[in-house]
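From the methods appendix. Each design record in this collection lists the tokenized structure first, followed by the designed amino acid sequence. Records were kept in a plain field format so they could be parsed without special tools. The example shown here is representative of the layout used throughout.

RECORD:
FOLD TOKENS (189 positions):
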């Protein structure tokens, strides 16, 4: 059973070959839903979840398309990698599908993209942000520096990166990411 009786739980019963099976799942307090193509955003989402857990908040990170029931979480942190100025399609579609729920919950948004350390935030605002701000009214949003490993890129991606002379490396600022997770934990009370 759930330790915290306030947490939403789902119990499913199924019967096969004369056996009745019982499955029980408790939803943690906070969901970190992410979309990531090459893994760097996934690692940021997992670090945020880990930090929240260290601070005593129940939290789990899940890829957006693996989230069964977003309405079962009390708070949601949603993040996507940025490609060609936009969030990944699966993240944008997920937000659109769940907009009514998200508008009623405390929500934080993060984007992962800029490479290098001399990038101005305003230039990198993903194009969905004004719409999301209007529709969801997130409590806060952040843009985090990303990572780029040439070995993980497809041939067309490599060509694009070469054309724009995108720098290779891991520019993620873990201190800034953890500090943001701490601010979320404080806000959750
Ligand atoms: C083809 C390509 C296009 C990109 N376009 C952008 C962009 O428009 N804006 C941005 O900030 N970062 C851009 N990036 C950088 C990625 O967002 C960054 O590498 C990020 O960490 C990738 O996240 P992921 O590993 O979770 O997929 C691009 C990277 C590639 C390979």
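DESIGN:
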């Amino acid at each position: 059973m759930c330790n915290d009786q306030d947490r939403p739980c789902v119990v499913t019963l199924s019967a096969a070959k004369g056996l009745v099976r019982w499955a029980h799942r408790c939803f943690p307090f906070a969901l970190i839903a992410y979309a990531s193509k090459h893994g760097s955003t996934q690692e940021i989402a997992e670090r945020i979840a880990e930090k929240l857990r260290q601070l005593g908040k129940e939290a789990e990170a899940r890829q957006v398309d693996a989230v069964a029931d977003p309405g079962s979480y009390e708070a949601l942190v949603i993040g996507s990698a940025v490609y060609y100025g936009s969030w990944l399609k699966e993240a944008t579609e997920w937000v659109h599908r769940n907009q009514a729920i998200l508008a009623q919950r405390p929500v934080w948004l993060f984007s992962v993209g800029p490479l290098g350390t001399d990038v101005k935030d305003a230039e990198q605002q993903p194009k969905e942000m004004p719409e999301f701000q209007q529709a969801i009214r997130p409590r806060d949003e952040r843009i985090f520096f990303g990572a780029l490993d040439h070995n993980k890129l497809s041939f067309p991606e490599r060509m694009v990166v070469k054309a724009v002379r995108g720098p290779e490396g891991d520019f993620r600022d873990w201190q800034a990411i953890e500090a943001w997770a701490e601010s979320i934990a404080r806000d959750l009370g």
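APPENDIX NOTE: The two ends are 24 Å apart (CA to CA).
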